[in-house]
Design brief:
By secondary structure, the chain is mainly α. The chain is built from 13 helices and two strands, in the order H-E-E-H-H-H-H-H-H-H-H-H-H-H-H. The chain has a two-stranded antiparallel ribbon with strand order 1-2.
């Protein structure tokens, strides 16, 4: 005969099942994330650490993995005395100075003009943006024809106005890097204009109306309202363009291959040259980490200066 339970006694706690709903949801979540996580590890994380390992190694790409040989800091020591690396770094710096400030200033001026209710506003947006979305090979082919020393339209025009010895542009060591910088500015301006126009749409019109009532001129409204409120946009664009200027490769490889006489070689092209032409993957990896260090330091410096100016 069963004894009745005393009044007030607690019922035994139900057993917790291992495969409850929360665990099932977590499992399904990891199953969906798994392929992406594996891809990130194989395509991003592993190459970063393998590149770091190779930077301390000597490896001829044609010899297979069995030919990898640790040599310590020899690649970095060679980098310090490599004249081509010094030339590539100086070219990168000059290219950055020629493209980043010019493209940002020019784009800001054009964005202000387009934003102020210019006729055919949509047409100008599309017209400036088309070069940015065009193939870099197509852009290079068009500009290569424009830059032709004797038959190109640019030099033809210079001949017609009395200039007997115009630059040979891509074939001239003194003008090759400038020629590439002009193409880069022409191609990127449309993207910067679109970003600036998006930033300007967030500026309240009431601020401009109040400034007009107070008698502010167009320049004063631009300097006191537009520029300060576009500061976050400008910071974003500056960092993006700064990083992009140190990663330039395709247009250099297509038009000049770093020449003539290394006058247009840049750091990324130097990495490609050592890794896939000379098959020195260890030295190319060391140069890649130099590029990473430069871009990281420049980005951090930009953020620090931007925060300091914002506080002032």
């Amino acid at each position: 005969m069963e004894l009745s339970k005393p009044a007030g006694a607690e019922a035994p706690a139900p057993k917790r099942r291992f495969w409850n709903n929360s665990r099932k949801e977590a499992l399904f979540g990891w199953l969906f994330l798994g392929p992406e996580a594996i891809g990130i590890i194989l395509l991003y994380v592993f190459p970063v650490f393998f590149s770091l390992y190779l930077s301390f190694s000597e490896w001829n790409l044609m010899g297979g993995l069995s030919s990898v040989k640790l040599i310590g800091f020899d690649n970095f020591k060679e980098m310090l005395s490599d004249v081509k690396v010094h030339k590539a770094l100086s070219n990168n710096l000059i290219y950055t100075l020629m493209t980043v400030p010019v493209s940002m200033i020019l784009s800001l001026i054009l964005a202000v003009i387009i934003h102020n209710r210019v006729h055919f506003q949509s047409y100008f947006k599309v017209a400036f943006f088309i070069p940015y979305i065009s193939s870099i090979i197509a852009i290079g082919a068009v500009w290569s024809a424009l830059y032709h020393p004797s038959e190109g339209p640019i030099n033809r025009m210079l001949f017609s106005i009395g200039i007997e010895n115009p630059p040979k542009w891509l074939a001239d060591p003194d003008f090759a890097l400038l020629s590439i910088a002009i193409i880069a500015v022409w191609a990127i301006v449309g993207y910067i204009i679109i970003i600036y126009l998006a930033g300007m749409t967030n500026i309240p019109e009431e601020m401009y109306e109040a400034a007009s009532i107070d008698g502010a001129t167009s320049f004063q409204k631009f300097y006191k309202i537009t520029l300060p409120l576009l500061a976050p946009t400008t910071t974003f664009l500056f960092i993006t363009l700064l990083i992009g200027s140190f990663k330039v490769f395709d247009i250099v490889a297509f038009l000049t291959s770093g020449g003539p006489f290394n006058s247009s070689t840049v750091l990324v092209y130097r990495i490609y040259e050592e890794g896939f032409q000379n098959f020195r993957m260890g030295y190319a990896s060391a140069l890649s980490w130099l590029l990473f260090l430069i871009v990281g330091l420049l980005t951090m410096l930009t953020w620090v200066l931007q925060k300091r100016f914002a506080q002032d």
